[in-house]
Amino acid sequence: MITTATESSGLGAATADLFRPAGGQLGKDEFLKLLVTQLRYQDPLNPMEAQDLAVQLAQFSSVEQLIQANERLEQQLAASEALAAGLNTTAALGVLGQTITAVTNRAVVGEDGGGSIEVEIGGTGGSLTIRLLDENGDEIGTREVGALGAGRHTVDLGSAASGLPAGVYRCEVVVKDGEGTRVPARILATARVDGVRYGSQGPVLIAGPLEIPLANVLEVKSIP
Questions:
Q1: Residue 51 CA: distances (Å) to CA of 26, 47, 124
Q2: CB 185 within 8 A of CB 119
Q3: Beta 217-221 vs 106-109: how paired, if at all?
Q4: What is the topology classification, in CATH, of domain 97-221?
Q5: Is the pTM of this model over 0.85?
Q6: Which residues sit opposite 186 in a β-bridge?
Q7: Helix axes 50-94, 28-40, angle to 10 degrees
Q8: Model confidence at 130: pLDDT above 80
């Protein structure tokens, strides 16, 4: 029995659905199976044009080349990530026992209820406010420090730590100029590195009660 063009079209659509992955895209194996099936069930009285076949073969070749290029890129990416991880590990071990200065968002309240932070203020300076927060982001202490110039300053926590038990707290600094515009500012921690912990984001330096990601380190000082 001769297969009609209508039957061929319906089978081709069914075959496409059969080999189409859940994501809606054809891989090279599915593409080749679909092409072979299409050739097998084509209408003998109306076969596929040679030009159409050449176009499909060219598409198949392009798909295969793109897949191979993607695989090579993935291999290069994996190698780069492994190299970066190795370099980070070497760098982290290299600062053991050294004194670092790093960006942080933590403040330490001592047993006596006191403590201080180092603040780096940009622009031309402004009025500083210190806020201590719990892990939910709720304010548990604040201190209006007042006007400070640009640069680095060591500031007591003062009333921000009043009544708080000893420990490490989230800290936020807000600096505004005379017009109420916020000025760039960040908290710095200077401490000796006692250990290294490896987490999902890479090496984390242990400096007393603080844990500081290696990427946050600004300065390393070798102190005898």
A1: 22, 11, 71
A2: yes
A3: unpaired
A4: Immunoglobulin-like (2.60.40)
A5: no
A6: 120
A7: 170
A8: yes
The amino acid occupying position 141 is: G
Q: Which DSSP symbol is given to 216?
A: G
In terms of phi and psi (left: phi > 0; alpha: psi -120 to 50; beta: otherwise), the region of 6 is: alpha
Q: State phi, psi for 95 to the nearest 5 degrees.
A: -100, 0
Both structure tokens of 46: 């109306």
Tell me the per-residue pLDDT of 4-60, one tens digit each, with 9 for 90 and over: 444 444 444 444 454 454 545 556 677 677 767 776 766 555 555 556 666 666 666
CA dihedral in degrees (192, 197, 203, 207; nearest 10)?
Answer: -20
Q: Which two tokens stand for residue 181?
A: 């515009």
Q: Are 83 and 45 in contact (CB under 8 A)?
A: no
Q: Which of the pair, 4 or 165, is modelled with greater confidence?
A: 165
In this prediction, residue 199 carries a pLDDT of 72
d(CA 57, CA 183): 61
In 3D space, the residue among 169, 160, 107 whose CA is nearest the CA of residue 135 turns out to be 169
